[in-house]
Structure formats: structure tokens, C-alpha cells
Amino acid sequence: MGSAVACVVSDWQAAEAGQISLRRGERVRILKHSKANGYFVQKLRNSSLTSGMLSSEEGWVPTHAIAFASATNTSNGPSKKPWSFKFRKPSFNSGTTAGILRKRADRRFLDSLESQDISDVNGCSDGGSSSSLEAKIEILCKLVDLTVAVGDQIQMTCQVHVPSHFDMKNINVVWRKQVDKETGLSSCLIEGGRYSIYYSDGLARLTISDCHISDAGIYSCTVNANDMISSSVTTTACLTVNACKIGQPRVRALSPTTALVVWDGDPSVCYTLYHEQCNVTSQGDIENVNTVGTTQYVLGLSHCVDGLQPGCVYVFRVSNSLPSEPLLLPMPTSSNQFSSSRWQQEQFGRRYLEKEVLGRGRYAVVKRAQDRGTGQQVAAKQVHRIRQAPNITHAEYSVMLGLQHQSIVKAFALFESSPLSEVDTIIMELVSGPMLLAYVCQEDTVSEKTVNVYMLQLFSALDYLHNKKIVHFDIRPENILVDLSNLNPVLKLIDLGESVHRKHLQEITPPASLEFAAPECVLGQPAGPPCDVWGAAVYLYVFLSGLSPFLDESVEETTANVLKCDYSFPDEYFGTVSQDAKSLISRILMAQPNHRISASDAINCSWFQMSGDIPFSISTSRLSLFVNRRQPLHNLLS
């Protein structure tokens, strides 16, 4: 392993045996590293004739005293990187939420931030040790646990950030599988056979085809740099391979180009769905089978397959199942011999009675509907095909069908081209209550314990989604309702439309609500589970105080506040709020996604572990003003 050259950024006087004294500006070669002692270095000669040559002086120095020379600027003044965003200075008028929150110290802090880069700069400067932290490889997106069926192909993926001054030729990616739980012994995986290993630009991926039961276990990915001491990161995940008996899938045509596939099995497993084109002989034999499509990580026990050829014969397999019976898709016709859309319209009209509009959004109108047979009240989400393609609506329905959590709204049925030919309708659980924040404002005060109970339900729902590799992408008050149909009110998270749009269209739309959007979403960057947790933390801040932590007088100022994580806990509004609640918010509202705790970590934090009542009550007067301001947005169901 090579050794790295570093620059001394602050004077250091040896205080113990084995240490070495250094002056700022000198260069050293790092020989080894210890968490307890720092770096063991050898001084380089500084004269022009002997530059780069080693001297005989060596010893230990603390970590804060040096920074890697390849990332430094050794000029007389610190360097300043340009930043593409240019913020207006926020106004501090007292009439806004931001004006209430910000004191003079906050203004000075904002001014100082405008003269700095928003990201850490690792290097030698006159700024002292606080700006000279060692640049390291960081994990941006960890491996996630997977549950699949025997015979499936899986991909385990993680994303790391490698500092630009690292030599990419010296980056190593090592995949391992644990072979002994007691000793932790693991074996190194290599390219070939059923294993495919890929790495590029910080993206590491392991692909295992035709999964066996023996493939189940703990996998790890380690990324390190040969020429950088202590630059190694590891992320792990568990792969579960189920040998569940799926049986023969059942299929039916929804239209000349769409088929619905239904199967038996474990709803918690991610399945792989294959559709194959074939011919059927006069004796009923299947021949010339050709796989024409594969859909991975299918959640639930049904899936709509779109884009099929009218008049062709298909069979379908789910992971290691038997093939389905052959399905002959009808030819499109204007006659009454076969009209899937007309048939579905008739079925919808016979079963459901449409009632009033509950809300309108970018893609859909949601109406109350009643089952004519049972009298059950449901919500009918009607999506116009001009605004959203049918395959996206089918995908949203398939995702919802596989979710079974008390705080996530359920889907019951999908009617294609119903009630009109240009509209698709998802029949969903009707939430018999308003926005949660509007509900609690019916009382003059709300206890912190009540906030605690509802927030635990929200983080539990997010943890459930994230474990299924689903990101909501749109956590805001309008998508958090309360169900009052039971004795104890239950939080309900609605609307997975944004999640499906991002996954299937590979497009990033502007945030529906800027004040609840994470920095990476504001910047239009790829986002993951941390953006949901951010939205939940902003929601908790509002729940406890009635104030929006980042909202300002203009879009530009609100954007600046979000990107700088500029918020505080004024005693006037948080004086009676427990420290544990504020600590939870602080551990989430961090600019870098990988620095935020996960939904699972939030559930296990001290605030949710407190026993008994939390002896604080919070006035809902400010929260009522917040709800009234956003009430027009309650009709937006993105």
C-alpha cells in the first residue's frame, strides 16, 4: 500500500515521547494511522534542492494538524470555489415566520455563510485546523436488505462519494459474503459465473443471477483507496431467498395491449415477472417460446403488464413458477364483439356510485364513491390519460396493492378506461378524517405526548416503505391525514404518485412544497429515503411550534434557508418542548443526506422511548394559522 503526502496546517509541539514537532506549511509523508494517536509521519525536506526527500525525523501527530497535500492550496490565502447559486439576503421583517425566528446573531451567521462554500474544503489554508479536515470516501446510499424468490436475479447497489483529488486508479471495490455468523468470517466474491460486479463514478453494484437458497446471507461492499490512509468505507445488507411455492399464475386480458397477472405467494417477497411470446399448435402445445420482457422487484401478488402486441399469444412466469396458461390478446376493434374499455366502464358503473369531489391535483381528481352492493364508502382516484400514461397508473396501483401497513392508505381495485374511456380509476380506502394538523387544531392545546404518538406512526410508515425500497418523495401536511373510523385515531399517509413518477419516468419534478423539501430535492439531484425523513422532521417542527422552519418572504430566500439548513429553536416557541424532541429534529435536518438518521433510527430514538406522559402542552393557535395558510393546498393530491 502506498503512502500519502500531507501538508501541516497548524503548528504542533510534541508533548510526549514518540511525537514530532511540526510547523505550519511543512510537508510530511504518512506512514500509518491510529485512532488513538493520529498519524505516524516522516518529515519531508523543504529546501529547493532536496524537495520531496525524506528526513530522518518521524513521529506521531494529531489528525487535526495535517491535511492531504493533493487537496490543498498552499498559497498565502485560502482558495474560494465558485458556487452556482447566488442568494439574496433574507429580509428580517417581523411579519413572517422567518422574521420571528431570526435574531441578529442569525443574520450575522447568514452573512458569514454567504462568504463560504456550502461544502467542506479539505486543504491547507490560513484558516486553521477547523477547515483542514481530512477528505475521506463517504457512503451516500447504503446497501438495502432484499427478500427474493428462488431463481430471481438480484442487484445490490450502493453509492459512495470519492473526493476529486483521489486517484481513481487506486480505488478498490471488494464484495464479500459472510460464511460464518459466529466468527464473522467472510469470503471475497469475484466476477464470473452467476456473479457480475460493476463500479463506475462511485456506483458499486453486485448482480447475482438465478438465486439459490445458499445465496442468502449478509453481504458487504468495501470501497477503499490504496494511496490514502484511513480511507475505507463498508456497507452491509441481508439477502433473504425464499423457496415459496408460487404455483401457476392466473392471467386475463384487460385490453388488447394489457394483461393482469395474479399469483399466490408471500406478499413480502420481491418477485421477478417474465412475459414470453409463443405459438400454440392445433394440439394445444406451446412452441417457439421467446422471452420478450422482464420486470424485477415486483411487490405484492399481482401486476399489470403493458405494451403487449394485440393478437399475439403470451405466457407469464413469476420467479421460479410454472408458466401460466397461454393468453391470446384480442385485436382492437370498434365493434361490440370485444371492448375491454366498455366492459370495464359497465362494471364500474354497476358497482360504484360516484359522489362529491374530495380533492384535485396535478394528475388526478379524487372523488367519494359508494359500493352499490355493500354500501362501503371508498375513494376513487381518477387519472386522465392526457396527464398521466396508463402504465404509470397501473404501476401506482401495483405498488399500493402490495402495501399492508395501518398508516398507509390501501388500494382495492383498478378500473381501466372508467368511468370514461380517457380516464383510469384506482379504488382506494377512504380516510374518514381531515389533515392531521387540522384535526388537532380543533382543541386549544395539544400535548407533546399526542405529537409523539402520531409521529411514531409516521416514522413507522416511512420505515415500512423504505424497507420495501419505496421512497414517498412528497411528505407534507396535505398527504398526512387522520382516520377517525376507529376508537383511536390513526395517522394515514396517502399519495404514492410522486414515487411512481420518479421510478418509471426517470424524471425529477419540482417539489410540490418547497418548505418541506430536502436540499437534494431543491437542487434537482437524485434523492432517496433521507428526503422522506427530512420532510417528516420539518413536519414535526411545525407540529410542535406552528412555525415553518425554512419559510421566508420569497422562493429565493426559502431556497437559501433550506440549502443552508438555517433554522433554530426560539425559546418563545420551543421553551416547553422537550430536549429529546428537538434533538430528533436536529439529527435529521442536516444538509448531507448521509448524515441524517434513518426512519428506523428515529423510531429507536430517546423521544419515542420515553415512558408515561410527556408533561407539556402546546398551544395550537399558531398551528391554526399555519393550517389556514395551507388550507387551499389541501386539494392538491400530487
Automatic annotation (TrEMBL):
CDD domains: FN3. ATP binds at K381. One of its GO terms (cellular component) is nucleus. GO terms for molecular function: ATP binding; protein serine/threonine kinase activity; transmembrane signaling receptor activity. Residues 352-608 form the Protein kinase domain. One of its GO terms (biological process) is intracellular signal transduction. Residues 135-234 form the Ig-like domain. Keywords: ATP-binding, Disulfide bond, Immunoglobulin domain, Kinase, Nucleotide-binding, Repeat, Serine/threonine-protein kinase, Transferase. Belongs to the protein kinase superfamily. CAMK Ser/Thr protein kinase family. This is Kalirin.
